[in-house]
């Protein structure tokens, strides 16, 4: 006989409360699950998950618009590292703290100083050196009549040399939005391996009046050299972007110990004075390409359309080492399968260069005013095999990349012999051409600046190359701190033999 359930008045009164409690718990559980789902969706953001199908922004103008709209302060209320007067005690105290941190790393890491990530302290300079210059560019780049003396669009030149923007924008981005593992920003100077100076030298050179620009250069010089970290090392662990060869010229000699980010070494001495630049200290960075990437699909589609043997479009008259261009034009003009055109880097020039490169097997790359030119990187991302005729050329990231796999190197003396160059190019077999073009498709990623910065992109390779310099930087910093005045002059590592083009080996 089943027992009956007796419901007393008190138990009936508790039932609604129990139901209400259970309902509340169910709603809370649903809300938690919804929140978790939303959180997971946010975590799957392409900025945070590089495995997702996501196309990073490679346009300087588009990236800058987003950066200024979302991240750039519009007022001068941001903190800066201004130093009115630095005492010897402050410099000594920083040195002690840096020594203490380095000692901890030596004791705790058997591989130190060969380690990643590199720790970089980014100076928070007054906005007249940073944000104000970016806003100036943004508000004036549509002025297409703003040209240099030789007819090149000023704002396009700034884009080609905008490496200072791409590196800085990545360094100051929130860690949750960054993809690079080779570098991390630190907020305490004593923890830093290197110090980054975020001054836009190219924008200021082109967009400010001459005297205004020189005055700003002097202010930047004083601001940086007044910092305790600069005084401690003499600037040897400071990174200075001076990617356009005309920029920062009036005060360079006072910052020659810093690590310069350059487009080339220019050992001819036309742009950099002897003892200012050398490979042991400085770093070569690629220009920002002026044409769009020809990806794997594009390379496949353009294969049958590459009917031009050799293509060149650019300024035909250059100074210094670039004078070989005029001689090559005279030698090659009218030859079968060769297209040589006069042109600049404006919108029309970009379209013409892109079409021409995608229809060509080889792209001629003679020296410009400096041994390098942006055309080399246009050719690489277009799948057009570069033919480099520049006896003094230094290349970006050559400690990591083997350019013999993607380019042909020809000495000026060989190129100037009548008929030699075309005979040489026609002798390159179809299998070798296909292999080199396939390598170009693989190498293109190393020359595309983007936001967010991509693993194995140029921003990443900068820090991988910097890692190889750290031991020497520390060596020369410490030697400079202990060498007495009466001793021999401190080694600067600026003795180097000229770089001459050797025989091509593929």
From TrEMBL:
One of its GO terms (molecular function) is glycosyltransferase activity. Pfam families: Exostosin_GT47 (PF03016). It is a single-pass type II membrane protein. One of its GO terms (cellular component) is Golgi membrane. Residues 117-423 form the Exostosin GT47 domain. Keywords: Glycosyltransferase, Golgi apparatus, Signal-anchor, Transferase, Transmembrane. It is found in: Golgi apparatus membrane. Belongs to the glycosyltransferase 47 family. This is Exostosin GT47 domain-containing protein. It comes from Manihot esculenta.
């Amino acid at each position: 006989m089943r027992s009956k359930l007796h419901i007393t008045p008190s138990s009936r009164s508790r039932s609604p409360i129990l139901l209400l409690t259970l309902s509340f718990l169910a709603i809370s559980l649903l809300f938690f699950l919804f929140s978790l789902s939303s959180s997971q969706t946010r975590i799957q953001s392409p900025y945070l998950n590089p495995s997702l199908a996501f196309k990073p922004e490679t346009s300087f103008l588009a990236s800058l618009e987003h950066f200024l709209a979302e991240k750039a302060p519009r007022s001068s209320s941001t903190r800066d590292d201004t130093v009115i007067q630095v005492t010897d005690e402050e410099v000594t105290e920083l040195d002690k703290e840096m020594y203490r941190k380095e000692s901890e790393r030596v004791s705790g890491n058997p591989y130190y100083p060969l380690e990643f990530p590199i720790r970089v302290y980014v100076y928070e300079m007054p906005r007249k050196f940073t944000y104000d210059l970016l806003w100036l560019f943004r508000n004036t780049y549509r002025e297409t009549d703003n040209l240099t003396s030789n007819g090149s669009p000023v704002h396009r030149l700034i884009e080609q040399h905008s490496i200072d923007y791409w590196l800085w924008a990545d360094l100051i981005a929130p860690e949750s939005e960054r993809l690079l593992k080779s570098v991390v920003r630190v907020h305490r100077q004593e923890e830093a391996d290197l110090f980054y100076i975020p001054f836009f030298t190219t924008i200021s050179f082109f967009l400010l009046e001459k005297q205004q620009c020189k005055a700003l250069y002097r202010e930047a010089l004083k601001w940086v050299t007044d910092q305790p970290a600069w005084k401690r090392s003499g600037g040897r662990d400071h990174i200075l972007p001076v990617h356009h060869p005309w920029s920062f010229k009036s005060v360079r000699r006072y910052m020659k110990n810093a690590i310069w980010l350059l487009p080339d070494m220019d050992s001819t001495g036309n742009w950099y004075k002897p003892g200012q630049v050398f490979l042991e200290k400085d770093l070569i960075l690629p220009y920002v390409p002026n044409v769009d990437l020809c990806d794997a699909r594009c390379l496949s589609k353009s294969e049958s359309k590459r009917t031009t043997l050799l293509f060149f479009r650019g300024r035909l008259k250059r100074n210094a080492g670039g004078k070989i261009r005029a001689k090559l034009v005279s030698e090659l003009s009218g030859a079968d399968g060769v297209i040589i055109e006069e042109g600049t880097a404006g919108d029309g020039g970009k379209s013409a260069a892109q079409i021409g490169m995608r229809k060509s097997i080889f792209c001629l790359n003679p020296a410009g005013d400096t041994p390098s030119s942006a055309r080399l990187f246009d050719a690489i991302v277009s799948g057009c095999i570069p033919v480099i005729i520049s006896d003094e050329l230094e290349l970006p990231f050559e400690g990591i990349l083997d350019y013999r796999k993607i380019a042909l190197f020809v000495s000026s003396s060989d190129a100037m012999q009548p008929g030699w160059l075309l005979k040489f190019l026609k002798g390159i077999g179809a299998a070798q051409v296909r292999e080199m073009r396939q390598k170009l498709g693989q190498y293109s990623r190393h020359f595309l600046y983007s936001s967010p910065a991509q693993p194995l992109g140029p921003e990443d390779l900068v820090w991988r190359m910097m890692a190889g310099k750290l031991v020497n930087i520390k060596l020369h910093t410490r030697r400079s701190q202990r060498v007495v005045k009466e001793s021999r002059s401190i080694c600067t590592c600026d003795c180097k033999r000229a770089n001459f083009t050797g025989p091509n080996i593929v």
